[in-house]
Amino acid sequence: MTSAALEILGLGLGILGWVGVILACGLPMWQVSAFIEANIVVAQTIWEGLWMNCVVQSTGQMQCKVYDSILALPAEVQAGRALTVLVALLGLVALMVTVVGAQCTNCIRPGKVKSRIVIAGGAIYILCGVLVLIPLCWFANIVIRDFYDPTVPTSKKREMGAALYIGWAATALLLFGGCLICCCSCSQRDETSFPVKYSAPRRPTSNGEYDKKNYV
């Protein structure tokens, strides 16, 4: 019962992480304007994401524009698009696989096959966490490198946006949820694999008949 509850908890964390990845993918706040030196007081803030960039005026008005060309985008943006979309699809697959093999469902008869299916679902969640971590760390490295590069103009320096932090939180949920699902499934499989016990053969008595205690 405890392993089933932990398995449901891991599935819930995986779903939250999957939703967080989709949210981070759609948000345009992967990079935001850095207010330093001459840019301390500005009339607008620039947001840059995977699919569009937005300009937020000091009056509260916001204008967003979708990127015109895919091939003209930087390598990190193209990789971020591909990996986040792939993770979104894999997260859906992991959800269906885990639900099919979960202890709380009757889609498959309990046994080794059911445990292996759940472990596969947890492994897919872990794979999703690793894949989405690549563009997040790539973007963070570029932002930090350009921020401390004296050759980059101050107006082009950026800071890490909210989408990166949401993505890192989603990565933690995916990794932890996937590990929890795998561990619970492994422990459940060990509990169900009982050793085979053999009963002692019946021995006849001196008169050729079986002893009555053999039938007790």
From TrEMBL:
Predominant location category: other
Localization (cell): Cell junction, Tight junction; Cell membrane
Name of the protein described by the UniProt record: Claudin
Top-rank lineage group of the source organism: Eukaryota
Keywords: Cell junction, Cell membrane, Membrane, Tight junction, Transmembrane, Transmembrane helix
Function: Claudins function as major constituents of the tight junction complexes that regulate the permeability of epithelia.
Gene source species: Cepphus grylle
Membrane disposition: Multi-pass membrane protein
Gene Ontology terms: cellular component: bicellular tight junction; plasma membrane
Any one Pfam family match given in the protein's UniProt record, by short name: PMP22_Claudin
Chain segments annotated as transmembrane: 7-30, 82-105, 117-144, 164-184
Gene: Cldn5
An example Gene Ontology molecular-function term: structural molecule activity
Family recorded in the similarity comment: Belongs to the claudin family.
